[in-house]
Amino acid sequence: MAERAIPATLRVAVIGTGRMGADHVRRIQSVISGARVSAVVDVDAERAKAVAARVDGCTAYTDPVVALAAADVDAVLVASPGPAHEAALLAAFAHDLPVLCEKPLTPDAASALRVLEAEQALGHRRVQVGFMRRYDAEYVKLKALLETGQLGRPLMLHNRHRNVASPPFFTSSMLISDSVAHEVDATRWLLGHEITAVTVLRPTPSVNAPDALLDPQFVVLETDGGALSDVEIFVNCGFGYQVQAEVVCERGTARVGDGHGLVTHMAGRWGGTIAQDFTERFADAYDREIQAWVDATRRGEVTGPSTWDGYAAAAVCEAGVRALEEGGRAEVALVERPALYG
Ligand SMILES: NC(=O)C1=CN([C@@H]2O[C@H](COP(=O)(O)OP(=O)(O)OC[C@H]3O[C@@H](n4cnc5c(N)ncnc54)[C@H](O)[C@@H]3O)[C@@H](O)[C@H]2O)C=CC1
Ligand SMILES: O=C1[C@@H](O)[C@H](O)[C@@H](O)[C@H](O)[C@H]1O
């Protein structure tokens, strides 16, 4: 395929204009630099039209394949639901377009592997996966501290991931595949280890969990570097959105996500506020993530979480769902890491 000329302002097609897609359209148009939205695609035609109407020179489509063939597009942002990602990614690969794909890369290891193989067939990386913890200022500092080696070898990572309430379509396995997927990536990225086995423990569900939802869950990830990473996932905690991580090393510990940004003392009490959802807690991280993607694309590069990272997360989550459903511990089987992913 002929080398594609990269314009000064990238023309981006956004596939999926729901909560995340519409927010990324706003971000590209009003917050970051170097890109504009030239096309939006949603199976819900009215939703696509409503979002397109807010953006000059943006066309609405209902089919990603038609959109990428017809529209003037230099890059693609995929924000449709996970099961639709494979088709969208393959449509982008057919035009050799760079893609920012929201997590999960795909919902299971077999489809993630097909995407991995399709990208290798192109011969170069095309995908950045939307694991935004890697762009959060506190997580970035934690990673940098670990890399100095001052704390010594990481032994354990304790993660807490709490949502106010789960959406109506949420299932018990989605606590792992949709939510813990972030901690799976954070563990691999912070520790630089692959995850080899997953154990899922199920306390008696909260009275606030919708019917039959196993919420909360306690997940233990074993790594090939000998560290353990545990995740409390609680998606109906009721009081706020909290994402915290504490790494315990041989010479000390470090933690992020306590939300101590603004502390007030008033009327005999002290305290702060708790974010209510991810769009608030991770707003800056999403801005940095999309800006980094646009900047790298304009340089003709692909950076950030790769298709390999998306595949590894899918395989770990699949093992996690197995452990949840069958009880106990499930081992993770990964294919050999291809040379393209270093
Ligand atoms: N990084 C993060 O923190 C978060 C990431 N996400 C991820 O973002 C993606 C989208 O999630 P939400 O915006 O919350 O979902 P949503 O349900 O609000 O929006 C999805 C949109 O995609 C459309 N759609 C469905 N199938 C499609 C297809 N085949 N082609 C084009 N459009 C299609 C739907 O009509 C809907 O408008 C998911 O992959 C989700 O896991 C979601 C929330 C936070
Ligand atoms: O990715 C996300 C959602 O899909 C997921 O459902 C939430 O639990 C996470 O907090 C959010 O970041």
UniProtKB/TrEMBL annotation:
This is Inositol 2-dehydrogenase. It comes from the Bacteria. Residues 143-330 form the Gfo/Idh/MocA-like oxidoreductase C-terminal domain. Gene3D superfamilies: Dihydrodipicolinate Reductase, domain 2, NAD(P)-binding Rossmann-like Domain. It catalyses: myo-inositol + NAD(+) = scyllo-inosose + NADH + H(+). It comes from Streptomyces bullii. Involved in the oxidation of myo-inositol (MI) to 2-keto-myo-inositol (2KMI or 2-inosose). It is an enzyme of class 1 (oxidoreductase).
